[in-house]
Amino acid sequence: MDLPIVISKDLLVPLHRQLTDAVRDAITSGRLAAKQALPSTRELAESLSISRRTVVRSYNDLTSQGYLETTFGGGTFVSRNPPIDCAPEAFQPAPTPIDNRCLSDFTKHILRSNNEMVDFGNFEPLNFCAGPADLLPIKQWRQVLSKYLAGGDVGQLDYVVDIAGFRELREQLCQYLRRSKALRCDTEQILAFADTFSCLDLTATTLINPGDSVVVENPGYIYARQLFEAHGAKVHALPVDEDGLIVEQLYNIREHCKLMLVTPSHHDPTGAVMSLPRRHSLLNWANDNCDFIVEDGFDSDYFYSSAPLPSLHGLDQSGKVIYIHNFWKLLYPLTAMGYLVIPHNFVDAFVQTKQHVNRFFSAAEQRVLADFIREGHLERHWHKTRAIYKRRRQAVMFALRQAFRNKVDFFGEGAGLHITVRFDLPLSMEQLSASADAASFPMVSTMDYYARDPVECEFLVPFCVIPEERAAELVALFAEHLNAKVALPVGV
To answer: Which domains are seen in the chain, by residue range?
Structure first.
């Protein structure tokens, strides 16, 4: 390790004293942390073009002062217990107010909205909305990855020069979308990204101007709403019911809309599936009143009760629908890669914008995912996990119904990796959350998803992370903790 220290042979101060002072300053300022390894005396002498004897003398002085310690054969380290005046916080400069005149309008808005920022750590019980790690196809992913990292043709890891993404990956995505999502698309329409938020960010950057009207769902994807607002859009948050976004509410918007973001396959977060008549109504409204529909295929990979309905993209006849999807539910943390399907006449605009704001991401990841899909690993993993999740879903819902009878309602249980649960109990949100935590029963409030009018005692339960054989035990323990707080009604 190099140690960035400046000493001068032109000064009257001896070199060893300059070095001692410089290392001490690095320790007391926090640049060098406790137990941090230092370069050997020989390495540091060569780096600074001074004699090794000078470095040895300086290290000895610092050791005697308590700043350094040496282990036999192990090297020299910053002391585990440096002198009391070394506390880094004592040397932190006082914070100064931000001069907002130096910032973009985008960042100014984010700062103004700081009180709305959501602590993503709150979503940890949901496993960050991903499937459980123990069911990941790690062996198959490793096998595909090893082809590129096991000392073979390193040329396979050259930069992916196509701004839209590795072409073979986009070809595989196109085939996958045609057979699994019934999309009508070709390879040229697909743009690949490291994650879904990058897809959404590019869409906002390409299409939204300050003052544009944008429609989102309420409740809905928190960061999408904040992203559109940060771009200066006027955001209309419209309610949903068991059939998805309530289309009749759209006719209350007086101005023309630039775009709307919907999750028709599995609403985020309630899980409602937009009915086929409502999908047609939405497209009819958009024909005259909206430039683009951004269809987020959120949580659309798993369904349990009936075949999935046609996507808006597949039903669209006017080229208004932009489709977004990712592999978070299926493969995270192996990959969170996302992609856009763009209407033909806007592909060039999106690619040109992507060139400036989202140019590259991992070449290896793109190549591995392409092979992973082509070799059939993705769909084999889907078939295996779908059967497991279906059993876990049934076990969790049965246990909750047994424990709470008619005091619990389920929503969105036909698809996805979580169910939305509403409790009708004489208990607060805090009491319900605390009891779930105490029982290690994963459950997250939906409050943060609402732009307004949140539903009390509504939670997301990620059944996918609850082993089938433990569902009854965890739910019973949850109910037991609730009973300890307040006696539940008779019959519950």
So the answer is: 15-91 (1.10.10.10), 122-379 (3.40.640.10), 381-485 (3.90.1150.10)
